[in-house]
Amino acid sequence: MAIRANPKLITELEIYGAQDVSKCYHCGNCSATCPFSKEPYIFPRRSMRSLQMGLEAKLESDLEPWLCYYCGECSTECPRDAQPGETMMSLRRWLTARYDFTGIARLFYKSAKAEILAVILVALLTAAGFLLYGFSQGSITQYDGPNAFLPASSVHIFDWTLAAVLLILLGTNCTRMWWFTVGRDKKVHVPFSAYVKKIYLLPMHFFTQMRYAQCEQKRPWVIHLVLMLSYVTMLVLIMFFLESMWSGPAVNWSVHVFGLAATAGLLATTIILLRKRLKKTEVQYEQSHETDWMFLVLLIVVAATGIVQFTLHRLGLDTAANVNYVIHMMAVVPMLLLEVPFSKWSHMAYRPLAMYFADLKAEEMVSKEREAVGAPQAA
Ligand code: SF4
Ligand code: SF4
After folding, report:
1. Atom of ligand 2 at shortest distance to CA of 44?
2. 85: CA distance to ligand 2 center in Å?
3. Domain boundaries, the chain
4. Which residues line ligand 2 (CB under 6 A)?
């Protein structure tokens, strides 16, 4: 098959945050330093080379950027200051845009203004929708009960509709990811039975991010683990226990304790990450893309308004609680509808998928090699 190089690829990657790729002279220090770089996935040197050569199709089918957790060790060791860690991060953004069939991810990465405008637009539409619905059927002075401004049952239906839209968008992008990285790979055919056998890898990597713990510094892993578990806990509470969460003004400890713990986890980790990005003392936080800020800003608004909501409702301040809830949703909806499928939150899905696919492909490659030399297959 003819290989078509894209001479403008490095310039294109600059939009996604890559810098200094041309400085790389392929000494291999970065791959030797990287705790995750193992056969058959030797990175980041290989990605730097593919980028310099403009091998767009090869990079699109690569899982390696997702195997990097941006511990930053390679960038610290690079003698040319070619920033391989940041390049891997940029490649993850670039791939996010490639997997996205709508083109929205690419638009957000290319233009901070477009992302901000989209977030504002969705926030305003959310506010308009909730206010219209609330005033049409209830009283703003009533938080729950028969004349509630926003009854929990209606909010629940809205949440499930949002989840369905999200699943369609993210599911389609994940399918495209599979097609680019595994499905259309003619050299490695993964049998269906292997997908089934290794399916446990998906929840394992999703919930524990255990590979991240192999970085020399353990703190970033702990922070991401807390962020992840808090987010998932909150999602489960909203999707399955909304009516119990909504109850009050008395505290329902059996569910509220999880809500409070998850909110505290979200707030604490977001503040830590914001501080790190502002201080820039660690290599992985030295350069921030605009999309990194949006992700953190929305998260902090969601967590802060969630706490305010809980407090206002317990104090019996129903009108304020209703107004605050609309503000809360003005951050929740753009976060779920725009950031999860099209921006940094989507990495939560792509990374465990990549771990899963990489394992399947590696096993198949080993199996083919054994077959070629006539060695017995592993049990
Ligand atoms: S990125 Fe740096 S460490 Fe890695 S191969 Fe290039 S010059 Fe060497
Ligand atoms: S940032 Fe860390 S995980 Fe990523 S390639 Fe460099 S050394 Fe490996």
Report:
1. 5
2. 5
3. 9-99, 104-362
4. 33-34, 36, 43-44, 68-74, 84-85, 88
C-alpha 143 to ligand 1 mean position (Å): 59
**Distance, CA of 5 to CA of 370 (rounded, Å):** 33
Angle at 269 between CA 266 and CA 274, to 5 degrees: 115
Helix 347-373 vs helix 84-99: crossing angle, to nearest 10: 100
The answer, yes or no, to whether any atom of ligand 1 lies below 6 A from the CB of 46, is: no
Measured CA distances, 82 to 22, 23, 48, 230, 276 (Å)? 7, 5, 9, 35, 22
Q: Which two tokens stand for residue 154?
A: 């209606």
252: CB partners within 8 A, 6+ apart: 244, 245
Per-residue model confidence as pLDDT tens for the chain (379 residues): 567 788 899 999 999 988 889 999 999 999 999 989 988 999 999 999 999 999 999 999 999 999 999 888 999 999 999 999 999 999 999 999 999 999 999 999 999 999 999 999 999 999 999 999 999 989 999 988 889 999 988 999 999 999 999 999 999 999 999 999 999 998 889 999 999 999 999 999 998 888 888 887 888 889 989 998 998 898 888 888 888 887 778 888 888 899 899 999 999 999 999 999 999 888 888 888 888 899 899 989 999 999 999 999 989 999 999 999 999 999 999 999 998 889 888 998 999 999 999 999 999 888 887 777 777 666 5
How remote is the CA of residue 149 from the centroid of ligand 2, in Å? 50
| Ligand 1 atom 8 nearest Cα | 27
CA–centroid distance, 87 to ligand 2, in Å, is 10
Any ligand 1 atom below 6 A from CB of 154: no
**Which amino acid does the sequence have at 265?**
G
Distance CA 34, CA 85 (A): 10
